[in-house]
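Appendix B, record 7
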Amino acid sequence: MTELRMRAFEIDGRRMGVRLDPATWQAIDWIASQQKRKWSEWAREQLEQNPDADNMTAVIRAAAMDALLVEITLAERSRTIDSIAEGHPLLKYSTTMNDDELADHMRSCHIDGSEEMGGFTVHAGKDEFGRHCLWIENQLKRCPSLVIPMPEKEDQ
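Structure tokens (predicted):
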């Protein structure tokens, strides 16, 4: 059986310890590094989001597994979008963006209207080059949104 390893960190001024297997610690380190954070910051956030939890080790382990599942799902969706986009004229010029990239991009565009669709919002307008464009903004945290510029006649 794999030996559990203990790590300690502070939360609300109290020193806490969490004992997990090496593979889970490796996953937590990877998740935190993807977010450019320390593992302890990531773990503290998970516990703050679940203040009534009886078992903080279980909260951290579950959050790590959830984050890994999101990464796997996003990678699979990205491969699917790439394979569909190759042969479709609208998707050929599309791109996915994270929340910050989308917000920056949309500031330079003209939005004619938006419609909440339950889990995502569709925005229509013109991009920074004056092309008609659709933005499909994913409302799920840390999930990509899709930007689809309408190709000019010569691009089709």
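Remarks on this record: The first strand starts at residue 5 and ends at 11. The helical segments are 22-34, 39-48, 56-85, 99-107.
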